[in-house]
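Quick one, T. Sequence first:
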Amino acid sequence: MSTTERPLLVIPGDDPVQIAGSPRLETLGEHFQIRLFDNRPANDAEKLERAAGATAMINSRGAVTWPGEVLEQLPELKFISTCGIGTDSIDLVACRELGITVSNIPGRTAPVVAEHAFALMLAISRKTSYFTAAMKRNDWHQVLSTSLSGKTLGVIGTGNIGTEMIRLSRAFGMEVIAWSFNPDDDKAQKRGFRYVERDDVFSQSDVVSLQ
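Structure tokens:
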């Protein structure tokens, strides 16, 4: 298949960079012409200019929104993919009416988000940034830090991210209590935490994680 016969795939605003440099681009290039922009479109007119003629689009950043009045001016567009869970940057009602398929990656980012949140919790309890700065100044003296083991984590929301946060915290020897709009007793038993009232999460926890 020649380059001119390949459908056009547009990445309209990869800023901050998420797609550029990915080894998957080479694979995509076997099937699509790829048009990648490393900054965000300034307005709807620029979105239309960038996406003109596209059959598919990877909306790598949710800050780039696609309202119905823009989508209806892209008659060749058949598919939009996001690089996360949320689809709120895309007018799904308009996509349904226009026959545009939208895909996301539910649950795939939960470990990444939870690991980052846990790393921040560990950095605060162990005063990592403080000790790093002090060591660079050759200022090494004893300052008490806090061990997470044995402490209580309170989790608000036990969806994919909250559940992953619970798993990591239990591995560090933390007790976990949680509150959710949709409590799941089977999940609580399996993961080793218990549901409490929302106010109790705040009053009984050493650390609170909001999902």
